[in-house]
C-alpha cells in the first residue's frame, strides 16, 4: 500500500458496495476509511459480513461520511433516484466522486452533478469498470491506434440477466420510485458505453428503439432493443455509415456479448462487462477473412485469440486510476480529468434518447452534443 493512500468512504451498503469495498482494499494507492448507512446497525453488519478492518469508521448516516474531513473520495451506490441529491452534496463537501451507474435519471440531473463537481474542483467517475481492464486497452490499440481492423461499420452488444420471482417483486431496479430506468439503466448503460467506445466516443446521429420493449406494471423497462445510427457528412458519392444494435433485458439468460465489424476485420468477445476470469481475459479477432471458392469454408482456420493478463481485478484498477487522479489534484494541484465526466455524459445522453424514443412509440430521436430532439 502507498505511504499516504487516498481514503475512500462508502455511502450506502448495497450489494455492489461489497465488490467495490474489496476493490478499494486491493488497489495499492487507496484505503477504505469509512462506511455509512442509514443506521449504525446496517453499517456494522456490512463491516462484519465483509470482514472489514476495525480501523474502518462506521457511521449511521450518509451525512457523517461527507462531514468526515479525512475522507477524500465517496463511492455512492445508492438507488439512481437518490444520486443527484447525495452526489451534489458530496461535491460541495469537496469529496471526489465514484458514482454507480446509471449516473442519473436523465441528463438534466447528471449535468447538476457534473456542474457541482466542476465548480468544486473534484473528480467525477462512474462505475463502468470494464473500461479500466487491460483487455479494453489492447482492443483500443487494434481499433484506433494501429488501425489494424479499419473503419468500424457494425457494432452489436448484449447485456442480459435472468431475474427470478423475488427480483421482480422486490429489487430496486424494477421500482419506478428508485431506479425508474430499469434494464436500460442497469444493463443498457454498458451496451451504450460499448457502442460509444467502439466509435471513439462519437455520438450517433439518431437512435431508434424497436417495438419489442417490455415494461412491468410500474412502467419500468424490463427488456429493450435499440439501433444507433451514425452517418458521415462528407462529400463522398457513397455515404459511409455505422449501425449499432444494443439489447438489454432482465428476461434472458446471462449474456454480455460485444461484436465489432470493421472494413478490414472483426473483433468478438463474450464477456465484455465482467471477464470469465479475474486474472486473465481474451478476445478473438479476424483479419481479411473471406469465404473460399464455392463458399464451403473460410480462408482462415479459426479467429486469432488474444489473451491479456490482469494483475488486479478491473474494479481495483478503476479505483487505482481514480485514486491516482485524486492524488495529483491533492498534491500537485492538477485539474480533474475531464475524460471521465465526458464519457458519462455522452452515455447518459444516448440513454435519454432511447428512453425518449420508447416513450414516443419508437419514433426516431436525433442527437446533438447537448440535447435530443425528434422531427
What are the segments in which pLDDT stays under 50 over at least 5 consecutive residues? none
CATH architecture of the largest domain: 2-Layer Sandwich
CATH class of the largest domain: Alpha Beta
- The sequence of SSEs as H and E is EHEHEHEHEHEHEHHHEEEEEEEEHHEE
Determine the N-to-C terminus distance.
55 Å
Number of domains: 2
* Structural class by SSE content: alpha/beta
> Rough shape?
globular
User: What is the CATH topology classification name of the largest domain?
Assistant: Dihydrodipicolinate Reductase, domain 2
Report the sheet with the most strands, covering strand number, pairing sense and barrel closure: 11 strands, mixed
What does the radius of gyration come to? Answer: 21 Å
Please report the number of helical segments. Answer: 11
| Strand residue percentage | 15-25%
How confident is the prediction overall: mean pLDDT? 95
**Count of β-strands:** 17
The level of helicity is 25-40%
CATH homologous superfamily name of the largest domain?
Answer: Dihydrodipicolinate Reductase, domain 2
Amino acid at each position: 500500500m502507498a505511504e499516504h493512500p487516498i481514503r475512500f468512504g462508502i455511502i450506502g451498503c448495497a450489494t455492489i458496495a461489497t465488490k467495490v469495498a474489496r476493490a478499494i482494499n486491493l488497489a495499492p494507492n487507496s484505503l477504505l476509511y469509512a462506511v455509512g448507512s442509514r443506521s449504525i446497525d446496517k453499517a456494522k453488519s456490512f463491516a462484519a459480513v465483509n470482514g472489514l478492518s476495525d480501523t474502518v469508521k462506521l457511521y449511521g448516516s450518509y451525512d457523517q461520511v461527507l462531514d468526515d474531513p479525512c475522507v477524500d473520495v465517496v463511492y455512492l451506490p445508492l438507488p439512481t433516484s437518490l444520486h443527484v441529491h447525495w452526489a451534489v452534496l458530496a461535491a460541495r463537501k469537496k469529496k471526489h466522486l465514484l458514482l454507480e451507474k446509471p449516473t442519473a435519471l436523465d441528463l438534466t440531473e447528471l449535468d447538476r452533478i457534473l456542474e457541482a463537481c466542476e465548480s468544486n474542483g473534484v473528480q467525477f467517475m462512474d462505475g463502468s469498470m470494464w473500461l479500466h481492464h487491460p483487455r479494453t486497452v489492447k482492443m483500443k490499440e487494434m481499433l484506433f491506434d494501429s488501425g489494424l481492423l479499419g473503419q468500424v461499420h457494425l457494432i452489436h452488444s448484449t447485456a442480459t440477466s435472468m431475474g427470478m420471482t423475488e427480483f421482480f417483486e422486490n429489487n430496486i431496479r424494477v421500482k419506478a420510485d428508485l431506479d425508474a430506468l430499469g434494464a436500460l439503466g442497469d444493463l443498457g448503460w454498458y451496451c451504450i458505453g460499448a457502442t460509444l467506445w467502439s466509435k471513439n466516443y462519437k455520438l450517433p446521429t439518431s437512435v431508434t428503439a424497436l417495438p419489442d420493449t417490455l415494461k412491468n406494471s410500474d412502467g419500468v423497462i424490463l427488456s429493450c432493443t435499440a439501433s444507433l445510427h451514425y452517418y458521415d457528412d462528407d462529400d463522398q458519392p457513397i455515404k459511409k455509415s455505422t449501425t449499432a444494435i444494443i439489447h438489454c433485458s432482465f428476461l434472458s439468460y446471462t449474456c454480455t456479448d460485444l461484436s465489432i465489424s470493421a472494413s478490414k476485420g472483426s473483433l468478438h468477445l463474450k464477456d465484455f462487462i465482467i471477464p470469465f476470469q479475474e486474472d486473465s481475459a481474451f478476445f478473438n479477432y479476424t483479419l481479411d477473412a473471406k469465404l473460399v471458392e464455392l463458399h464451403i469454408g473460410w480462408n482462415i482456420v479459426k479467429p486469432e485469440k488474444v489473451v491479456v493478463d490482469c494483475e488486479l481485478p478491473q474494479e481495483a484498477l478503476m479505483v487505482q486510476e481514480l485514486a491516482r487522479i485524486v492524488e495529483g489534484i491533492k498534491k500537485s494541484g492538477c485539474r480533474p480529468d475531464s475524460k471521465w465526466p465526458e464519457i458519462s455524459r455522452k452515455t447518459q445522453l444516448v440513454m435519454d434518447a432511447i428512453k425518449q424514443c420508447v416513450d414516443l412509440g419508437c419514433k426516431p430521436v436525433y442527437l446533438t452534443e447537448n440535447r435530443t430532439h425528434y422531427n
